[in-house]
Design goal:
Helices cover about 45% and strands about 20% of the residues.
Protein backbone atom coordinates (compact mmCIF):
# COMPACT_ATOMS: atom_id res chain seq x y z
CA UNK A 1 0.00 0.00 0.00
CA UNK A 2 1.52 3.26 -1.10
CA UNK A 3 0.64 6.74 -2.24
CA UNK A 4 2.06 8.37 -5.38
CA UNK A 5 2.12 11.77 -7.03
CA UNK A 6 -0.07 10.33 -9.80
CA UNK A 7 -2.70 9.39 -7.20
CA UNK A 8 -2.70 12.95 -5.91
CA UNK A 9 -2.82 14.50 -9.39
CA UNK A 10 -5.76 12.24 -10.24
CA UNK A 11 -7.50 13.39 -7.05
CA UNK A 12 -6.92 17.02 -8.06
CA UNK A 13 -8.64 16.35 -11.37
CA UNK A 14 -11.66 14.86 -9.60
CA UNK A 15 -11.92 17.69 -7.08
CA UNK A 16 -11.66 20.50 -9.63
CA UNK A 17 -14.80 22.57 -9.59
CA UNK A 18 -16.18 20.85 -6.47
CA UNK A 19 -14.07 22.60 -3.82
CA UNK A 20 -12.46 26.01 -3.39
CA UNK A 21 -9.00 26.44 -4.83
CA UNK A 22 -7.96 28.41 -1.79
CA UNK A 23 -5.44 31.27 -2.03
CA UNK A 24 -1.80 30.92 -1.01
CA UNK A 25 -0.46 34.38 -0.19
CA UNK A 26 2.77 35.91 1.00
CA UNK A 27 2.46 37.54 4.44
CA UNK A 28 4.83 40.45 4.85
CA UNK A 29 3.90 41.00 8.50
CA UNK A 30 4.21 37.36 9.60
CA UNK A 31 7.53 37.24 7.74
CA UNK A 32 8.77 40.23 9.75
CA UNK A 33 7.60 38.69 13.03
CA UNK A 34 9.05 35.20 12.46
CA UNK A 35 12.17 35.96 10.43
CA UNK A 36 11.08 33.53 7.70
CA UNK A 37 9.54 34.25 4.29
CA UNK A 38 6.00 33.15 5.07
CA UNK A 39 3.35 31.99 2.60
CA UNK A 40 -0.10 31.10 3.96
CA UNK A 41 -2.56 28.63 2.39
CA UNK A 42 -6.07 29.52 3.60
CA UNK A 43 -7.94 26.20 3.81
CA UNK A 44 -10.32 27.79 6.30
CA UNK A 45 -11.99 29.31 3.22
CA UNK A 46 -13.45 25.95 2.15
CA UNK A 47 -17.25 25.83 2.47
CA UNK A 48 -17.08 23.78 5.68
CA UNK A 49 -14.07 25.88 6.78
CA UNK A 50 -11.54 23.03 6.71
CA UNK A 51 -9.29 21.08 4.35
CA UNK A 52 -10.97 17.79 5.30
CA UNK A 53 -13.42 18.25 2.43
CA UNK A 54 -10.69 17.28 -0.03
CA UNK A 55 -10.07 13.77 1.23
CA UNK A 56 -13.72 13.06 1.99
CA UNK A 57 -14.83 14.14 -1.49
CA UNK A 58 -12.09 12.19 -3.25
CA UNK A 59 -13.22 9.05 -1.43
CA UNK A 60 -16.86 9.66 -2.33
CA UNK A 61 -16.05 10.20 -6.01
CA UNK A 62 -14.22 6.85 -6.14
CA UNK A 63 -17.17 4.82 -4.84
CA UNK A 64 -19.00 2.44 -7.15
CA UNK A 65 -22.64 3.11 -7.98
CA UNK A 66 -23.69 0.36 -5.60
CA UNK A 67 -21.56 1.79 -2.77
CA UNK A 68 -23.02 5.24 -3.37
CA UNK A 69 -26.53 3.84 -3.22
CA UNK A 70 -25.93 2.07 0.09
CA UNK A 71 -24.14 5.03 1.64
CA UNK A 72 -21.11 5.71 3.79
CA UNK A 73 -20.36 5.91 7.49
CA UNK A 74 -17.65 7.57 9.57
CA UNK A 75 -16.77 8.23 13.17
CA UNK A 76 -15.88 11.86 13.75
CA UNK A 77 -16.63 14.75 16.05
CA UNK A 78 -14.97 17.34 13.86
CA UNK A 79 -14.23 18.62 10.39
CA UNK A 80 -14.20 15.21 8.68
CA UNK A 81 -17.84 14.75 9.66
CA UNK A 82 -18.91 18.06 8.14
CA UNK A 83 -16.89 17.60 4.95
CA UNK A 84 -18.26 14.11 4.36
CA UNK A 85 -21.83 15.17 5.18
CA UNK A 86 -21.72 18.22 2.90
CA UNK A 87 -20.32 16.48 -0.17
CA UNK A 88 -22.39 13.34 0.46
CA UNK A 89 -25.52 15.49 0.27
CA UNK A 90 -24.26 17.17 -2.93
CA UNK A 91 -23.65 13.80 -4.59
CA UNK A 92 -26.78 12.10 -3.27
CA UNK A 93 -24.82 9.65 -1.10
CA UNK A 94 -26.45 8.83 2.28
CA UNK A 95 -24.05 9.68 5.12
CA UNK A 96 -24.11 8.40 8.70
CA UNK A 97 -21.78 9.94 11.28
CA UNK A 98 -21.20 8.37 14.70
CA UNK A 99 -20.19 10.91 17.32
CA UNK A 100 -19.29 10.28 20.96
CA UNK A 101 -21.39 11.69 23.78
CA UNK A 102 -20.07 15.09 24.81
CA UNK A 103 -19.55 16.26 21.23
CA UNK A 104 -20.37 20.01 21.25
CA UNK A 105 -23.95 20.54 20.13
CA UNK A 106 -22.89 23.03 17.50
CA UNK A 107 -20.87 20.31 15.72
CA UNK A 108 -23.78 17.89 15.86
CA UNK A 109 -26.09 20.60 14.55
CA UNK A 110 -23.78 21.60 11.67
CA UNK A 111 -23.31 17.97 10.60
CA UNK A 112 -27.05 17.35 10.63
CA UNK A 113 -27.61 20.60 8.72
CA UNK A 114 -25.46 19.18 5.91
CA UNK A 115 -27.87 16.25 5.65
CA UNK A 116 -26.11 13.51 7.61
CA UNK A 117 -27.75 11.03 9.95
CA UNK A 118 -25.94 11.58 13.28
CA UNK A 119 -25.73 8.71 15.77
CA UNK A 120 -24.50 9.54 19.28
CA UNK A 121 -22.70 6.59 20.86
CA UNK A 122 -19.97 6.01 23.44
CA UNK A 123 -17.90 8.29 25.61
CA UNK A 124 -14.76 8.38 23.44
CA UNK A 125 -13.80 8.46 19.78
CA UNK A 126 -12.74 4.80 20.02
CA UNK A 127 -16.22 3.87 21.27
CA UNK A 128 -17.81 5.79 18.40
CA UNK A 129 -15.46 4.21 15.84
CA UNK A 130 -16.22 0.70 17.09
CA UNK A 131 -19.95 1.36 16.84
CA UNK A 132 -19.50 2.80 13.34
CA UNK A 133 -17.79 -0.43 12.24
CA UNK A 134 -20.67 -2.43 13.72
CA UNK A 135 -23.22 -0.35 11.79
CA UNK A 136 -21.09 -0.65 8.65
CA UNK A 137 -21.33 -4.43 8.77
CA UNK A 138 -25.03 -4.48 9.63
CA UNK A 139 -26.06 -1.99 6.94
CA UNK A 140 -23.38 -2.81 4.33
CA UNK A 141 -22.07 0.76 4.32
CA UNK A 142 -18.63 1.98 3.22
CA UNK A 143 -16.46 3.20 6.08
CA UNK A 144 -14.61 6.45 5.36
CA UNK A 145 -11.69 6.78 7.75
CA UNK A 146 -10.73 10.37 8.62
CA UNK A 147 -7.04 9.80 7.86
CA UNK A 148 -5.88 6.17 7.52
CA UNK A 149 -7.08 5.73 3.93
CA UNK A 150 -5.02 6.20 0.75
CA UNK A 151 -7.89 7.87 -1.14
CA UNK A 152 -8.41 10.34 1.71
CA UNK A 153 -4.67 10.99 1.90
CA UNK A 154 -4.53 11.62 -1.85
CA UNK A 155 -7.27 14.23 -1.53
CA UNK A 156 -5.40 16.05 1.23
CA UNK A 157 -2.22 16.00 -0.87
CA UNK A 158 -3.85 18.26 -3.48
CA UNK A 159 -3.10 21.14 -1.09
CA UNK A 160 0.62 20.77 -1.81
CA UNK A 161 0.04 20.79 -5.58
CA UNK A 162 -1.72 24.14 -5.30
CA UNK A 163 0.84 25.61 -2.91
CA UNK A 164 3.75 24.75 -5.19
CA UNK A 165 1.90 26.15 -8.20
CA UNK A 166 1.45 29.47 -6.39
CA UNK A 167 4.85 29.52 -4.63
CA UNK A 168 7.13 27.09 -6.50
CA UNK A 169 10.27 28.01 -4.57
CA UNK A 170 9.02 27.05 -1.09
CA UNK A 171 11.80 25.44 0.94
CA UNK A 172 10.07 24.21 4.11
CA UNK A 173 6.59 22.96 4.96
CA UNK A 174 5.70 22.58 8.66
CA UNK A 175 2.50 20.49 8.66
CA UNK A 176 0.16 19.62 11.56
CA UNK A 177 -0.01 15.95 12.54
CA UNK A 178 -3.05 14.35 14.11
CA UNK A 179 -3.70 10.96 12.57
CA UNK A 180 -1.31 11.80 9.74
CA UNK A 181 -3.60 12.05 6.70
CA UNK A 182 -2.71 15.63 5.82
CA UNK A 183 1.05 15.37 6.24
CA UNK A 184 1.10 12.09 4.29
CA UNK A 185 -0.55 13.58 1.23
CA UNK A 186 1.35 16.86 1.44
CA UNK A 187 4.74 15.20 1.94
CA UNK A 188 4.29 12.75 -0.96
CA UNK A 189 3.24 15.50 -3.38
CA UNK A 190 5.80 18.08 -2.25
CA UNK A 191 8.75 15.67 -2.21
CA UNK A 192 7.86 14.33 -5.65
CA UNK A 193 7.74 17.84 -7.11
CA UNK A 194 10.68 19.26 -5.14
CA UNK A 195 12.88 16.52 -3.66
CA UNK A 196 14.91 19.08 -1.67
CA UNK A 197 11.90 20.55 0.14
CA UNK A 198 11.95 19.89 3.90
CA UNK A 199 8.87 18.65 5.77
CA UNK A 200 8.39 19.04 9.53
CA UNK A 201 5.52 17.61 11.52
CA UNK A 202 3.82 19.71 14.22
CA UNK A 203 2.20 18.02 17.24
CA UNK A 204 0.70 19.31 20.49
CA UNK A 205 3.08 18.51 23.34
CA UNK A 206 0.13 16.91 25.15
CA UNK A 207 -0.44 14.46 22.27
CA UNK A 208 2.99 13.36 20.94
CA UNK A 209 1.63 10.31 19.12
CA UNK A 210 3.87 10.42 16.02
CA UNK A 211 6.91 11.43 18.07
CA UNK A 212 6.43 8.55 20.48
CA UNK A 213 6.12 6.04 17.68
CA UNK A 214 9.30 7.36 16.00
CA UNK A 215 11.14 6.84 19.27
CA UNK A 216 9.65 3.45 20.00
CA UNK A 217 7.85 4.70 23.09
CA UNK A 218 4.28 4.59 24.37
CA UNK A 219 2.71 8.03 24.00
CA UNK A 220 1.68 9.69 27.24
CA UNK A 221 -1.20 11.51 25.55
CA UNK A 222 -3.91 13.49 27.29
CA UNK A 223 -4.98 16.89 28.54
CA UNK A 224 -6.89 19.94 27.38
CA UNK A 225 -5.40 21.50 24.27
CA UNK A 226 -6.92 24.16 22.04
CA UNK A 227 -5.57 22.12 19.11
CA UNK A 228 -8.18 19.41 19.61
CA UNK A 229 -8.30 18.72 15.86
CA UNK A 230 -4.85 17.09 16.10
CA UNK A 231 -5.19 15.74 19.66
CA UNK A 232 -4.93 12.10 18.58
CA UNK A 233 -3.69 9.34 20.87
CA UNK A 234 -2.53 7.05 18.08
CA UNK A 235 -1.25 7.94 14.61
CA UNK A 236 -2.57 5.94 11.66
CA UNK A 237 -0.85 2.71 10.55
CA UNK A 238 -0.98 3.54 6.84
CA UNK A 239 -0.14 7.21 7.29
CA UNK A 240 2.89 6.48 9.47
CA UNK A 241 4.31 4.08 6.91
CA UNK A 242 3.89 6.63 4.11
CA UNK A 243 5.17 9.74 5.85
CA UNK A 244 7.95 8.54 8.15
CA UNK A 245 10.66 8.38 5.43
CA UNK A 246 9.69 11.81 4.07
CA UNK A 247 9.93 14.10 7.10
CA UNK A 248 12.86 15.78 8.83
CA UNK A 249 11.51 15.82 12.35
CA UNK A 250 8.40 16.39 14.46
CA UNK A 251 8.18 19.56 16.54
CA UNK A 252 6.27 19.43 19.83
CA UNK A 253 4.32 22.58 20.64
CA UNK A 254 3.22 23.95 24.02
CA UNK A 255 -0.14 25.69 24.41
CA UNK A 256 1.05 29.35 24.55
CA UNK A 257 2.45 29.02 21.01
CA UNK A 258 -0.90 27.81 19.66
CA UNK A 259 -2.59 30.73 21.39
CA UNK A 260 -0.16 33.31 20.06
CA UNK A 261 -0.35 31.89 16.53
CA UNK A 262 -4.15 31.93 16.57
CA UNK A 263 -4.09 35.53 17.79
CA UNK A 264 -1.62 36.57 15.08
CA UNK A 265 -3.77 35.08 12.34
CA UNK A 266 -6.74 36.97 13.71
CA UNK A 267 -4.97 40.30 14.20
CA UNK A 268 -2.51 40.23 11.29
CA UNK A 269 -4.24 38.22 8.57
CA UNK A 270 -7.78 39.08 9.73
CA UNK A 271 -8.82 35.43 9.48
CA UNK A 272 -10.44 33.07 11.98
CA UNK A 273 -8.39 29.94 12.70
CA UNK A 274 -9.00 26.97 15.00
CA UNK A 275 -6.27 25.78 17.34
CA UNK A 276 -5.05 22.94 15.12
CA UNK A 277 -5.14 25.27 12.13
CA UNK A 278 -2.57 27.51 13.78
CA UNK A 279 -0.07 24.69 14.40
CA UNK A 280 2.35 25.45 11.56
CA UNK A 281 2.66 29.12 12.57
CA UNK A 282 3.03 28.01 16.20
CA UNK A 283 6.04 25.94 15.07
CA UNK A 284 7.69 29.05 13.59
CA UNK A 285 7.17 30.89 16.88
CA UNK A 286 8.44 28.01 19.03
CA UNK A 287 11.44 27.01 16.86
CA UNK A 288 12.46 30.18 14.97
CA UNK A 289 16.01 28.93 14.33
CA UNK A 290 14.65 26.05 12.21
CA UNK A 291 12.96 28.41 9.76
CA UNK A 292 14.78 31.75 9.87
CA UNK A 293 15.57 33.03 6.36
CA UNK A 294 13.72 30.14 4.67
CA UNK A 295 10.70 30.30 2.37
CA UNK A 296 8.05 28.57 4.46
CA UNK A 297 4.55 27.45 3.49
CA UNK A 298 1.93 27.38 6.25
CA UNK A 299 -1.43 25.63 5.91
CA UNK A 300 -4.34 27.14 7.83
CA UNK A 301 -6.11 23.79 8.07
CA UNK A 302 -9.41 25.03 9.46
CA UNK A 303 -11.39 27.80 11.08
CA UNK A 304 -14.02 25.96 13.11
CA UNK A 305 -13.53 27.32 16.61
CA UNK A 306 -16.04 27.96 19.35
CA UNK A 307 -16.59 31.72 19.63
CA UNK A 308 -16.18 31.70 23.41
CA UNK A 309 -12.84 29.92 23.10
CA UNK A 310 -11.73 32.38 20.42
CA UNK A 311 -12.67 35.31 22.67
CA UNK A 312 -10.82 33.74 25.59
CA UNK A 313 -7.63 33.15 23.56
CA UNK A 314 -7.62 36.71 22.19
CA UNK A 315 -8.17 38.17 25.66
CA UNK A 316 -5.42 35.97 27.14
CA UNK A 317 -3.05 37.24 24.46
CA UNK A 318 -3.81 40.83 25.51
CA UNK A 319 -2.90 39.84 29.09
CA UNK A 320 0.27 38.08 27.88
CA UNK A 321 1.30 41.22 25.97
CA UNK A 322 0.50 43.38 29.03
CA UNK A 323 -2.08 45.30 27.04
CA UNK A 324 -4.72 44.21 29.54
CA UNK A 325 -3.52 44.55 33.14
CA UNK A 326 -5.20 44.41 36.53
CA UNK A 327 -3.67 46.86 39.05
CA UNK A 328 -4.27 46.80 42.82
CA UNK A 329 -4.19 50.14 44.59
CA UNK A 330 -4.57 50.65 48.34
CA UNK A 331 -5.42 54.14 49.56
CA UNK A 332 -7.40 56.16 52.10
CA UNK A 333 -11.15 55.59 52.10
CA UNK A 334 -12.17 59.15 51.35
CA UNK A 335 -14.36 60.84 48.75
CA UNK A 336 -12.68 61.47 45.41
CA UNK A 337 -10.00 58.79 45.66
CA UNK A 338 -11.35 56.75 42.74
CA UNK A 339 -11.85 59.92 40.70
CA UNK A 340 -8.22 60.95 41.28
CA UNK A 341 -6.87 57.54 40.30
CA UNK A 342 -9.12 57.44 37.23
CA UNK A 343 -7.92 60.90 36.21
CA UNK A 344 -4.26 59.82 36.35
CA UNK A 345 -4.99 56.72 34.24
CA UNK A 346 -7.07 58.64 31.71
CA UNK A 347 -4.57 61.50 31.49
CA UNK A 348 -1.89 59.01 30.41
CA UNK A 349 -4.06 57.32 27.79
CA UNK A 350 -5.18 54.22 29.68
CA UNK A 351 -8.69 52.83 29.28
CA UNK A 352 -10.43 51.52 32.41
CA UNK A 353 -12.25 48.25 31.70
CA UNK A 354 -13.37 47.19 35.16
CA UNK A 355 -13.17 48.36 38.79
CA UNK A 356 -13.59 46.25 41.95
CA UNK A 357 -13.75 48.20 45.25
CA UNK A 358 -13.03 46.33 48.49
CA UNK A 359 -13.27 47.90 51.96
CA UNK A 360 -13.54 44.66 53.94
CA UNK A 361 -10.28 42.83 53.15
CA UNK A 362 -8.48 42.28 56.46
CA UNK A 363 -5.09 43.20 55.03
CA UNK A 364 -6.44 46.69 54.26
CA UNK A 365 -6.55 49.28 57.08
CA UNK A 366 -10.00 49.94 58.56
CA UNK A 367 -9.83 53.50 57.20
CA UNK A 368 -8.46 52.34 53.88
CA UNK A 369 -9.84 50.99 50.63
CA UNK A 370 -8.54 48.57 48.04
CA UNK A 371 -9.18 48.88 44.32
CA UNK A 372 -8.56 46.34 41.58
CA UNK A 373 -8.61 48.29 38.35
CA UNK A 374 -8.34 46.53 35.00
CA UNK A 375 -6.91 48.80 32.33
CA UNK A 376 -6.27 48.51 28.61
CA UNK A 377 -3.04 49.98 27.24
CA UNK A 378 -1.07 50.11 23.99
CA UNK A 379 1.72 47.79 25.15
CA UNK A 380 3.92 46.82 28.11
CA UNK A 381 5.83 50.12 28.00
CA UNK A 382 2.60 52.12 28.11
CA UNK A 383 1.44 50.03 31.09
CA UNK A 384 4.68 50.84 32.91
CA UNK A 385 4.24 54.56 32.21
CA UNK A 386 0.79 54.52 33.81
CA UNK A 387 2.07 52.59 36.83
CA UNK A 388 4.90 55.12 37.24
CA UNK A 389 2.41 58.01 37.05
CA UNK A 390 0.20 56.44 39.72
CA UNK A 391 3.24 55.91 41.94
CA UNK A 392 4.28 59.54 41.49
CA UNK A 393 0.76 60.64 42.49
CA UNK A 394 1.01 58.73 45.78
CA UNK A 395 -0.94 55.64 44.75
CA UNK A 396 1.65 52.90 44.08
CA UNK A 397 -0.01 50.07 42.15
CA UNK A 398 0.72 46.36 42.16
CA UNK A 399 0.00 44.14 39.17
CA UNK A 400 -2.29 41.23 40.11
Amino acid sequence: MTLTLDDIKAAAGRLAGHIERTPCRHSRTLSEITGAEVWVKFENLQFTAAYKERGALNKLLLLSEEERRRGVIAASAGNHAQGLAYHGARLGVPVTIVMPRGTPFVKVQHTQAHGANVVIHGDTYDDAAAHAQKLREEQQLTFVHPFDDLDVMAGQGTIALEMLEDAPDLEVLPVPIGGGGLISGVAVAAKAIRPDIRIFGCEPAMYPSFTARMRGMNAQAGGQTIAEGIAVKQVGQVTYGVVRPLIEDVLLLEEPYFERALSLYCNVEKTVVEGAGAASLAALLAYPERFRGKKVGLIVTGGNIDTRLLASVLTRELVRAQRLVSLRIIGDDRPGLLATVSHVIGEHGGNIIEVAHNRLALDVPAKGAEFDIMIETRDAQHTQEIMDALRASGYPPRAV
